[in-house]
Amino acid sequence: MSIRTILAASCTVVALQSALPAFAQDRALAITIYADDLALVQDKRPVEVTGGRQRIEFAGVSAQIRPETVSLSANGVTIVEQNFDFDLLTPAKLMEKAVGSVVTIVRVNPATGQEIREQAEVLATNNGVVLKIGERIEVLRDDGLPVRVIFDKVPENLRSKPTLSVTVDGDRRGTRPATLSYLTSGLGWRADYVALFDDASSKIDVQGWVTLTNSSGTTYDNADTTLVAGSPLRAGGGYNDQRYGRPQRPQLVTAGTETGDRERLGDFYLYPLAERTTIANMQTKQVSFLDVHGVPAKHGYEFRNYWMGTQEEPQSARTVYRFATGSADGLGDQLPAGVLRFYMRDKQGDPQFIGESTIDHTPMGSTLSVSTGDAFDVKVKPVVEKRERLSSRRWRTTMNYTLSNASPRAVTVALQQDGLWGDTRIQSETMRSTRPNADMAEWQVNVPANGTAELTVVFDSSY
Fold it and tell me: How confident is the model at residue 339 (pLDDT cuts 50, 70, 90)?
């Protein structure tokens, strides 16, 4: 049985910690939360300065504080030294700190209710508590009998809350305002979007939520909270290289050029919460920031063949929804990165989930093409009909694409052929193509209801 299990309900502390140095209880918190598990906490409190050198303790700071980022601003006060005490007061920690010390063991006879007290030296706490009681060695175990452990005091380096202690030099005695600022992990936020698509009108309703999470080890009461949409560069944060493996499908078709009303901070956007809020430890909190109805949206299909090769069996096309974020016929806002979840109503009128996609930070005025998954009824089968070697560095490839549609209405599939590297050109095609980029060709193929369509393309490639 673990130390925590043995002591969780049975540990009694006789002497509590002495009071911290004088602080007024009024406190103002301002928290700026970034999307990548990072937050800036600005903790404003009045402090009692005695003049000269003294130690001031800030209880209730984040348990995941980055001590190297701490700064203390107070008139006439300079920092000499700071220590972060994150060893929190728990029954298990009390017993660990008591190794080599004497505690009191209290056992209760369940039949008579009589208490038996014994002095015991704590020898070890490795996978159990080993005690020396008189001349015998005993292992404290959970055998169903009522047992308590009484400690004479709480060790000085154990805290009921994460505590930052700062040694300062003050120029004069008196109470004055101070601001403690630091960066911390354990606080983060993300954007979550819910889109309801109406197939009959080809419109969507979109609601955006800010989802706050706090696992920092402390509660932030009545905090003035601002969210930052963007990803500030952090030293040692690594580099995201997506050159290898199959790339993620791009969601952003065109980047917007509109400016909205959101407050900016450098190249980031700020989303301040309208009211002060309490962010409890181990809590998830949601706040609405976007609610738009009747935005035009186009439902379609997309298939990308990643190389000029044959697929052994037909592959599902992707279901996609395209819409704008501009002020005219769009969402009319910047969209922080997050997850966009799509719903449609069934015949009973109830919204049903049909898929989700992640989106990156999206400027206002952009066009998004969001995929919700693989289509059940729309398939594409690419086949290499002929590959001819024209010279040591030149090839001719004839590709045939068969598109099938088992749904009761006609559909349009954006068929994309990727991998047109080097000097590749289209020698002939049965339907006119466009080139979204140098390495890709795209055809808008109409496939009739309960029918098929074919596309044949001849590529001339030099390497």
Answer: very high
